[in-house]
Amino acid sequence: MRRVDAHNHFWQYDPVRDAWIDDSMQVIRRNFFPDDLAPLLEANGFEGCVAVQADQSDTETKFLLDLAASAPFVKGVVGWTDLRAPFVEDQLDKYRDQPLLKGFRHILQGELNRCGMLQPAFLNGIAALGKKGYTYDILIFPDQLPFAATLCGKFSNQAFIIDHGAKPYIRKGEMDQWKKDMQAFRKMDHVYCKVSGLATEADWTSWTPQQIRPYIDTLVETFGISRLVFGSDWPVSLLAGSYERTVSLVADCFSASEQEAVFSTNARQFYKL
After folding, report:
1. H/E stretch holding 135
2. Which InterPro entries match (predicted)?
């Protein structure tokens, strides 16, 4: 099986830009580049990865594309552009000669306006992505799930993928409302979900696979095997454990044939790798 890690990050640490990395996150307060990830991928049987934006700037997109150009195992990039810009299609056209750019993401989880994704300017940006054939990664917290469902319902031909299972409140042991809101995506075949970043939503030092398994089971019930995609969320995942433990947490939930889909086929299909 040619595994793909469909969600990781690279950055050159900047204490101002990366202020979200607070004192509790010392382990990731440094640079992370492809050379740091390569041995982890090889040791865990991964052929490649998808690099996802961590900063909201066009500079970030260029940074990731430049890294991908020099690291063949980076099979795709999810970048950032201002989807609310009035000339968003022109902005997207700048990347027409960048086949490694697969899609875009906006950090909706940090928006003060929790339903800002439904504003006309943002909807116009999503429509532009569809015209250009790009995917969209949905980064939200559970309270935004109903708005995300409405967004996805408006664009049945747009490829969406929900990052980190919408970050359920595992640390608090809360599940019922998140599970209920997830059901809206059950019949939306154009919406995928990443089984990623779940351990960092639990207690970093004391989480167990048994604690997280019910959340993964819910994602299986909602999206089925064919719309689930593995992502490590490295290096953020290091806050809650090693790369190997992140991989085994998910792999142990699936049979060999299911792993083929979750760790390889689905990511390749969604991102057209």
Report:
1. strand 135-138
2. Amidohydro-rel, Metal_Hydrolase, Metallo-dep_Lactonases
Report the DSSP pairing between strands 135-138 and 101-106: parallel
Q: How far apart are CA 94 and CA 124, in angstroms?
A: 18
* Of 172, 243, 231, residue with least CA distance to 28: 243
The whole-angstrom separation of Cα 39 and Cα 123 is 40
pLDDT at 1 (0 to 100): 72
On whether the CB atoms of residues 77 and 51 are closer than 8 A, the answer is yes
Backbone angles phi, psi at 21, to 5 degrees: -85, 90
- Residue 115: count of CB within 10 angstroms of its CB: 16
pLDDT tens string 168-207 = 999 999 999 999 999 999 999 999 999 999 999 999 999 9
Whether the CB-CB separation of 100 and 77 falls below 8 Å is answered with yes
- What domains are defined for the chain? 3-271 (3.20.20.140)
- In the DSSP assignment, the letter for residue 142 is G
Q: CA nearest 96: which of 68, 134, 140?
A: 134
How many CA atoms does the CB half-sphere of 85 hold within 13 Å? 15
Angle at CA 211, nearest 5°, toward 205 and 216?
Answer: 115
Residues of the chain with pLDDT under 70: none
Backbone angles phi, psi at 110, to 5 degrees: -95, 0
Query: What is the pTM (predicted TM-score) of this model?
Result: 0.97
**Residue 90, class by beta-carbon neighbours within 10 Å (0-12 exposed, 13-18 middle, 19+ buried)?**
exposed
The burial class, CB within 10 Å (0-12 / 13-18 / 19+), for 10 is: buried
Task: Provide CB contacts within 8 A for 129, sequence distance 6+.
Answer: 83, 92, 103, 104, 135, 136, 158
